[in-house]
């Protein structure tokens, strides 16, 4: 699987982007609200490196816990999959736990994604190509 992006939890996308811009990043799109996942998302790019800035949206956003525990920080790597169902099963057989069902991601042209967790690796996202 090939890396698609790094997910980065932030309190405020606009404030965070000011600093990413200083580091050479440019906006790829405008902010997108993902109501299902309770987040706001902005993709930024520096050459071939794609970062997903993720801000909580609403009180019970899962990003709140990440920010509370780690502060603004990268917290997942997203991998592109040619056969997402096969890769999910392979990862589950290798000790990953599915923490979100396969669903459309509004910030990535409604492509299907899911999240998995392994205590030795942390959170990963799988994106259907």
Give a written overview of the molecule.
This protein has three helices and nine strands, in the order βαββββαβαβββ. It has helices at 13-22, 62-70, 84-93; strands at residues 2-9, 26-27, 32-34, 39-46, 49-56, 73-81, 97-105, 111-118, 122-128. Strand 7 (97-105) and strand 8 (111-118) form a beta hairpin. It is globular and about 40 Å long. The mean pLDDT is 96.
Task: Tell me the total number of β-strands.
Answer: 9
In N-to-C order, the SSE pattern is EHEEEEHEHEEE
How much helical structure, as a percent, in the residues? 10-25%
What does the largest sheet look like?
Answer: 9 strands, mixed
Low-confidence stretches: none
Helical run tally:
3
Oligomer: single chain
Estimated radius of gyration: 14 Å
Shape: globular
Percent strand equals over 45%
In round numbers, the mean pLDDT is: 96
Gap from first CA to last CA: 10 Å
Question: Which class best fits the helix and strand makeup?
Answer: alpha+beta
Summarize the structure.
By secondary structure, this protein is of the alpha+beta class. The chain has helices at residues 13-22, 62-70, 84-93, and strands at residues 2-9, 26-27, 32-34, 39-46, 49-56, 73-81, 97-105, 111-118, 122-128.
List key phrases describing it.
globular; alpha+beta; nine-stranded mixed beta sheet; 129 residues; 48% strand; single chain
Write the layout of secondary structure elements.
Elements (H helix, E strand, L loop, with lengths): L1 E8 L3 H10 L3 E2 L4 E3 L4 E8 L2 E8 L5 H9 L2 E9 L2 H10 L3 E9 L5 E8 L3 E7 L1
Parallel strand pairs: 1-5, 6-9
Antiparallel strand pairs: 1-6, 2-4, 3-4, 4-5, 7-8, 8-9
